[in-house]
Design a protein that fits this description.
The protein has 97 residues and is mostly helical. It has one domain: lambda repressor-like DNA-binding domains (434 Repressor (Amino-terminal Domain)), CATH 1.10.260. It contains 5 helices and no strands. Helix 3 crosses helix 4. The chain is elongated, with a radius of gyration of 18 Å.
């Protein structure tokens, strides 16, 4: 097993590496969507809620809900995320850092 660093500097932060590669924004956006989709799915599971029941609460189709829960689907509005959070008894919190 080779322990040598192939690229970057030892101790370099991953965010810095992504910025150097020009992929920080896309990677961060994808990671956030993935976390939100996971949290919604876990909240549904904790509530014992099926996808059909969740779709009914959101007044949407199951296929639309599947897109919402798909981490690779990035076309989700904040309003939809807030409605989905509310449907599982949670709230959506955004902040600029």
């Amino acid at each position: 097993m080779n322990n040598d660093s192939e690229a970057g500097k030892p101790g370099q932060l991953f965010g810095g590496f992504l910025r150097e590669q020009g992929t920080y924004e896309d990677t961060t956006e994808h990671a956030i969507k993935r976390v939100i989709a996971f949290q919604l799915a876990e909240a549904m599971k904790a509530e014992g809620m099926t996808k059909i029941a969740m779709a009914a609460r959101l007044k949407t189709s199951r296929s639309q809900l599947d897109r919402l829960l798909d981490p690779s689907s990035g076309n989700v509005t904040l309003a939809t995320l807030a409605r989905a959070a509310h449907a599982v008894g949670r709230s959506l919190r955004l902040e600029l850092v």
